[in-house]
């Protein structure tokens, strides 16, 4: 039961940080999202995001900052195996399925639904 509670608390804190960035610092949603991705990448590069995911589960894995962590994780894993060029290929290897799914489903949704504007 505590796993669910910690996931809720950590995910909520991440969302609160995003809301603070938009309300207090007047960042646009795009800037807020980009900032959260960069924060996740930095924490992942420092090795701090994996323990957070282990502790909070989906509370840390689902928010957008996990995407930055995945990018760095893939780049570092591939760089260890293939060298400097692995940094570039690792970025795409780890995240390609999620990005591809988002593009495909967005395209299908655009065919099915009519935009308002």
Describe what you observe in this structure:
- The protein is mainly α.
- It has one domain (2-112).
- 83% of the residues lie in helices and 0% in strands.
- The protein has six helices and no strands.
- It has helices at 2-23, 29-45, 49-56, 58-61, 65-82, 85-112.
- Helix 1 (2-23) crosses helix 2 (29-45), helix 2 (29-45) packs across helix 5 (65-82) and helix 5 (65-82) packs antiparallel against helix 6 (85-112).
- The radius of gyration is 16 Å and the shape is globular.
- The termini are far apart.
- The model has no long low-confidence stretch (mean pLDDT 90).
Shape: globular
Mean pLDDT: 90
Given helix and strand content, the structural type is mainly alpha
Give the DSSP E fraction (strand runs of 2 or more residues): under 5%
Structural domain tally: 1
Order of helices and strands: HHHHHH
Rg to the nearest angstrom?
16 Å
The helix content is over 70%
Report how far the terminal alpha carbons are from each other.
Answer: 44 Å
Number of helices: 6
Regions with pLDDT < 50 over 5+ consecutive residues?
A: none
């Amino acid at each position: 039961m505590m796993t669910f509670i910690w996931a809720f608390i950590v995910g909520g804190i991440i969302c609160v940080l995003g809301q603070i960035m938009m309300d207090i610092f007047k960042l646009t949603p795009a800037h807020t999202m980009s900032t959260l991705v960069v924060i996740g990448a930095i924490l992942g590069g420092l090795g701090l995001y994996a323990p957070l995911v282990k502790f909070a589960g989906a509370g840390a894995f689902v928010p957008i900052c996990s995407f930055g962590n995945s990018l760095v994780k893939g780049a570092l894993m591939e760089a260890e195996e293939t060298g400097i060029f692995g940094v570039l290929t690792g970025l795409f290897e780890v995240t390609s399925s999620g990005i591809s799914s988002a593009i495909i489903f967005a395209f299908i949704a655009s065919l099915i639904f009519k935009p308002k504007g």
